[in-house]
Amino acid sequence: MAEAADFPGTSPSPARRWLLRTGALVAGAPLLAGLFQLSATPAAQAAPKASLAEATGSNTVEVSLDSLSPSVPTDGDTVTVSGTVTNKGKQTVTDAHVGLRVAPAAVTGRSSIDEAAKRSGFEQYADGPEVGGKYVEKFSALASGVAQPFTISVPVKELDLGSDGVYQLGVSLSGRTAAAQYDQVLGIQRTFLPWQPEESDAKTKTTYLWPLISHTHLTAETGPGEQQTPVFLNEDLAKEISAGGRLEQMLTLGKDLDVTWVIDPDLLASVVAMTDGYQVRSGGTTVAGRNQAVAKEWLAQLETAVQGEEVIALPFADPDLAALAHNGKTITGSLSRLKDATDVASDTVQNILRVEPETDFAWPVNGAVDPSIVKVAISAGADKVIARSDSLQESSSLSYTPSAARPIGGGTTAVVADARLSTAFQGDMTKAESSTLAVQRFLAQSLTTELQNSKQRSIVIAPQRMPSASQAQTMAQALTALQGGNWSQPQELSAAAAAKPDPSANTKIPSASAYPSSLRKQALPKSAFEEIQTTQADLDRFKVILSDQSRVVTPFGRTMDREMSTSWRGRSMDAAVYRNGVQTYLNSLTEQVRLIEKSETKLSGRSATIPVTVQNNLVQGVDNLTLRLTSNAPTRLKIDDDDFAEKSVDISGGHSESVKFTTNAEANGPVTVVAQLYTADGEKYGDEVRFTVNVTEITATVMLVIAGGVLLLVLAGFRMYTQRKRAAARLETEGAPTDHEASESARRDGDANTEAVSVVHTAEEKPPVKSGADEPEHPSDPAPDTAPESADPSGTGERVDR
């Protein structure tokens, strides 16, 4: 972006200031000439963190500036700096002291700040003379490799600052070594000191976006039962919202700042899911989550913090607009899913935080835009796109930073965030020095922007989406100083978007070829959107059979939004694993409604009933299903007098149902039968089940054999009946039989009944011959010794059957 060469309306430093510094230069010229030449050598320009063998000249001692207070001084303040000095050389440094130096003139533009920040090594003219006097800290000796802390406090008036502007402030260590027995600068660290003691007449309106965005944490899976207990990938979200965590810091720091909150509704939904019972994946199983209290506390604090503040709601799960534009827009359903994610965003934020958010802003990753990205954003309902100035660049002829709002056609506004200010805190802010330098450089860029032009402008700052805890702390420190300064005032994002555009600002969206290749490589590939489409198609087939679709459609719909999240950038493997897990879980649910396998079925006769069992292991009932049974050989076996038959299926949760079909056999032999479930719209549901029906038709020969057997039984019964009738008549004529004879007759009758076909004895039974008229007959009398009808003479005492 073009910078101003000079500040309009600035005045030169006071004459006394120039005389003092010029005199110091002249007086010290003979001594410093050699040092200046030394500082100009390649060794002097080396990185300050050199090894012991390389540490020479003004890079011999490493000076670390860990704090500077106040960050924005005014008249009457005392500037205090603290840090450490570490001797990186091999020789001990003696007669050392640390002092402050102020550059003789303010920097002349935003590019000058960038260039000054890159300088290393000491340069007498550029770094200016040391304040000196009592405003130094002395060290008798600095041994090699040893670090020593220091603190210096200097009244602002001793710094001899001139007109409003940004001045380079150097913290230098001077001393002697055995090889150079004279005072020399052996180490220096520079930062920037914004100076504007009086309030500006046209303060810059500054909008700072404060993003509450996280990675994807929730899965599509829920626990069994009616409660649908949510399942998390891990407990990382609990760590982020716990004390000291990244999101806890963003909330705690942000509530005391004038910022515009930018919130991903998925983060809110995920924290809400933690407030009740939830499960966490652990190995191959799940365990109960234990951070309900932490989630409730964080949500309560956030709800309080955003009351009365502007809240921007991103589409649910923060979809990657650039990936959609470049790789997903040709995949059916991708853009409609983005629109749905935008529509649900407002309700989610309102229901949880009780504030009405703005939902017409789109935020492509890093603010990089091209025509296709803008079109995708518009298709989702956004009419304001948050871009960045390193994407929508200004022409070199513009000598100042214009306001953020740019009309780009079709009623759409590009809100262009300042790239330098937006990227100021992307580095490692865990070190005190890194944080201090970042804060001062941010403030310097902000003040320089304000001094470029006498007109009031609107500047937007869009930092990284997910700042670390240390980055958040540094951002808060810089914002606190900025909002306490005299050149800036806070403004909401919607006001910045509605501000009057600068007619000289660039309004042309860069071409697709200008999109950074590094960002393009990180985007979700086309295959990812194809997998999402497959999941959606399977979900559409599944939901139509459910009695309560919301139990499945809502969690899976939100999960597919998460599959398109910007947070997957640079994590392609994790994204693929997540998508596969979603599809696998959906498959496991659809398989809970299935046909039970059948073994071979034998069919004897011309007609029979065949049962087919449908099982529903879901919690809820299913309907709108049709079971079709088809005969592959209808000439031999018909189903309900046709090639196939269909019956509706309606099964409550956790039950099975047998559906019965009537079959008719036309010929003998095996026939393959296919059972298949269909949805109401005729789509196949689940796997088909094939089984064999073996038909054995009853023939005429078999019927004759059976008829003959029946006839024989009838004839045998008739003969038995006739025989008994004759025996009864004879007994009536000859007298009653003895007990033994009656018993024997009953036995013979029973044997005749048992046999299907038997030979009936026809010999007549005669009454026994008694040996005497008065001799009684007993059942226990001995059997006759002589066979019936024997011609041999009878012995004494023997009985004879005749």
Automatic annotation (TrEMBL):
| Annotated region (Disordered), positions in chain | 493-512, 729-802
Query: Could you tell me where the Basic and acidic residues compositional bias lies?
Result: 729-751, 762-780
Transmembrane segments in this chain: where? 698-718
Protein name stated in the entry? DUF6049 family protein
Q: Give the Pfam families listed for this entry.
A: DUF6049
Which keywords does UniProt give here? Answer: Membrane, Transmembrane, Transmembrane helix
Q: Does the keyword Iron apply?
A: no
Biological source species: Streptomyces gottesmaniae
InterPro entries assigned: DUF6049 (IPR046112), Ig-like_fold (IPR013783), TAT_signal (IPR006311), TonB_box_CS (IPR010916)
Keyword set includes Transcription: no
